[in-house]
Amino acid sequence: MADEDCYSRKISSEESKKGYIFVLKGRLSFFPPKGKTFTLSELQNEKRVKMESYHCTCRGPALPHKHYFIQWDGVQRGEKITITKDRKIAGRYFLVSKK
After folding, report:
1. Which is it for strands 92-98 and 6-10: parallel, antiparallel or unpaired?
2. 20-45 pLDDT tens trace
């Protein structure tokens, strides 16, 4: 599967503790615009979610920026997740995890 057809990452300990999936700024265009809700489905778990962000100074106060994420409880540190778009239903995405 080509990179532009999916979003993949390995879940960090912070993502696991806080219940979210971090989204790289360069991959935001794969998802609906920030704040617009969409459906994310994993097996029997289907939820309406949205892209969110928070201000961060992890690179120092001279380099403020935003981190983007999707709230999703239950992700585990080290888990490899892949999100793909539903080709039949607009605004619906599938989450597949490999532990």
Report:
1. unpaired
2. 999 999 999 999 999 999 999 998 88
Please name the residue that has the structure tokens 């532009």: 4
Separation of first and last alpha carbons in the chain: 19
| pTM of the predicted structure, to 2 decimals | 0.90
DSSP secondary-structure letter at 90?
T
* Distance from C-alpha of 81 to C-alpha of 88, rounded to nearest angstrom: 21
Q: How far apart (Å, rounded) are the C-alpha atoms in residues 15 and 71?
A: 9
d(CA 15, CA 21): 6
Taken in order 83, 85, 87, 88, the sign of the CA dihedral is: positive
Q: What confidence score (pLDDT) does residue 99 get?
A: 74
Q: 33, exposed or middle or buried, with CB in 10 Å at 0-12, 13-18, 19+?
A: exposed
Nearest to 70 by CA among 22, 7, 15, 9: 22
In words, the CATH class of domain 3-98 is mainly beta
Query: The tokens 């794969």 sit on which residue?
Result: 30
